[in-house]
Specification:
By secondary structure, this protein is mostly helical. It is built from one helix and no strands. The longest helix has 93 residues. The chain is rod-shaped, with a radius of gyration of 41 Å. It starts with a helix and ends with a helix.
Length: 95
Amino acid sequence: MKHAVEDGEQGKSTAGNLTRKVQLLEDELDASEKHAKETVEKLRQVDVKAEHFERQVQRLEQERDQWEKKYEDAQAKYQESKKELDELVRSMGEF
Protein backbone atom coordinates (compact mmCIF):
# COMPACT_ATOMS: atom_id res chain seq x y z
CA MET A 1 0.00 0.00 0.00
CA LYS A 2 2.81 2.36 0.89
CA HIS A 3 4.37 1.69 -2.48
CA ALA A 4 1.12 2.53 -4.29
CA VAL A 5 0.85 5.86 -2.44
CA GLU A 6 4.43 6.76 -3.43
CA ASP A 7 3.70 5.86 -7.05
CA GLY A 8 0.55 8.01 -6.96
CA GLU A 9 2.42 10.99 -5.55
CA GLN A 10 5.20 10.56 -8.09
CA GLY A 11 2.58 10.38 -10.86
CA LYS A 12 0.97 13.60 -9.61
CA SER A 13 4.38 15.28 -9.50
CA THR A 14 5.21 14.12 -13.02
CA ALA A 15 1.81 15.25 -14.28
CA GLY A 16 2.33 18.65 -12.64
CA ASN A 17 5.76 18.99 -14.25
CA LEU A 18 4.36 18.01 -17.64
CA THR A 19 1.50 20.48 -17.26
CA ARG A 20 3.98 23.27 -16.48
CA LYS A 21 6.10 22.29 -19.49
CA VAL A 22 3.03 22.29 -21.74
CA GLN A 23 2.04 25.73 -20.45
CA LEU A 24 5.57 27.07 -21.05
CA LEU A 25 5.59 25.63 -24.56
CA GLU A 26 2.17 27.15 -25.29
CA ASP A 27 3.39 30.52 -24.04
CA GLU A 28 6.48 30.21 -26.25
CA LEU A 29 4.27 29.29 -29.21
CA ASP A 30 2.04 32.31 -28.60
CA ALA A 31 5.08 34.59 -28.42
CA SER A 32 6.52 33.07 -31.61
CA GLU A 33 3.22 33.48 -33.45
CA LYS A 34 2.99 37.11 -32.34
CA HIS A 35 6.56 37.72 -33.47
CA ALA A 36 5.83 36.04 -36.83
CA LYS A 37 2.74 38.23 -37.36
CA GLU A 38 4.74 41.37 -36.54
CA THR A 39 7.48 40.29 -38.92
CA VAL A 40 4.98 39.61 -41.71
CA GLU A 41 3.41 43.05 -41.18
CA LYS A 42 6.82 44.74 -41.30
CA LEU A 43 7.63 42.83 -44.49
CA ARG A 44 4.34 43.97 -46.02
CA GLN A 45 5.16 47.58 -45.14
CA VAL A 46 8.62 47.22 -46.68
CA ASP A 47 7.05 45.80 -49.85
CA VAL A 48 4.65 48.75 -50.05
CA LYS A 49 7.54 51.20 -49.64
CA ALA A 50 9.62 49.36 -52.23
CA GLU A 51 6.78 49.53 -54.75
CA HIS A 52 6.38 53.25 -54.05
CA PHE A 53 10.08 53.89 -54.60
CA GLU A 54 10.11 51.76 -57.76
CA ARG A 55 7.29 53.88 -59.19
CA GLN A 56 9.15 57.03 -58.17
CA VAL A 57 12.32 55.81 -59.90
CA GLN A 58 10.36 55.02 -63.07
CA ARG A 59 8.78 58.47 -63.02
CA LEU A 60 12.17 60.14 -62.56
CA GLU A 61 13.70 58.06 -65.34
CA GLN A 62 10.90 59.12 -67.68
CA GLU A 63 11.42 62.74 -66.69
CA ARG A 64 15.17 62.38 -67.30
CA ASP A 65 14.50 60.87 -70.73
CA GLN A 66 12.21 63.79 -71.60
CA TRP A 67 14.86 66.31 -70.57
CA GLU A 68 17.52 64.45 -72.58
CA LYS A 69 15.23 64.51 -75.64
CA LYS A 70 14.62 68.26 -75.19
CA TYR A 71 18.37 68.82 -74.88
CA GLU A 72 19.09 66.79 -78.01
CA ASP A 73 16.40 68.69 -79.93
CA ALA A 74 17.79 72.04 -78.75
CA GLN A 75 21.32 70.92 -79.65
CA ALA A 76 20.18 69.95 -83.16
CA LYS A 77 18.40 73.31 -83.61
CA TYR A 78 21.51 75.12 -82.42
CA GLN A 79 23.72 73.25 -84.88
CA GLU A 80 21.28 73.97 -87.72
CA SER A 81 21.07 77.67 -86.80
CA LYS A 82 24.86 77.88 -86.52
CA LYS A 83 25.24 76.31 -89.96
CA GLU A 84 22.73 78.78 -91.45
CA LEU A 85 24.52 81.70 -89.77
CA ASP A 86 27.90 80.54 -91.07
CA GLU A 87 26.47 80.28 -94.59
CA LEU A 88 24.95 83.75 -94.28
CA VAL A 89 28.24 85.23 -93.08
CA ARG A 90 30.13 83.52 -95.90
CA SER A 91 27.65 84.71 -98.54
CA MET A 92 27.82 88.27 -97.17
CA GLY A 93 31.59 88.12 -97.31
CA GLU A 94 31.43 87.36 -101.02
CA PHE A 95 29.67 90.68 -101.71
